[in-house]
Design goal:
eight-stranded mixed beta sheet, globular, 20% strand, alpha/beta, 183 residues
Length: 183
Amino acid sequence: NGIDGSEWQGTIDFDAVKNYGIEAVYIRAGEGSDYTDRYFTRHYEAAKTAGLKIGFYHYVTATSPEDAIKQADFFYSLIQDKDYEMRAAMDYESFGGLEKAEINNIAQAYIERLCERLEYRPAFYSDLSNINNLWNEYFSDFPLWAADYSVSELENTGSWNAWAGFQYSDSGRISGISGNVDT
């Protein structure tokens, strides 16, 4: 059982979260090439102290492969000295007016650079609609963190043979968190 934590949840009481039965947290490290989540360090330290499994994700805003590489480097700079148990994850879900081929090229530039920096394959976060309609087969070699709030079990994961993580709600209610949280 896990959650996705960012500044949108404010201060999180990770001891209460753990006592509720949550075992893992993906913490948003930042966004783009220069924005660090306001609660990144606080959430990391509190989750670690509470004994939760930790992973990090980065919200990609790139509009070109060159920008994607800069953003991957920025993400790496935020997490390189941190201890974590779960793979770092790329979260690229806002595309503006970009075409499908452009989006795939940007995502590939980002994830390849992140692979180089991490020296392992990061996780790939996406919603089910984009999994089935947007991403090309290249990405199916990366562990999939799939989001779909309309089903209780994923049946179709596009090019991926399986999923590594399933985000099934954006309105979870967990002790230690005021308001909704992704579960």
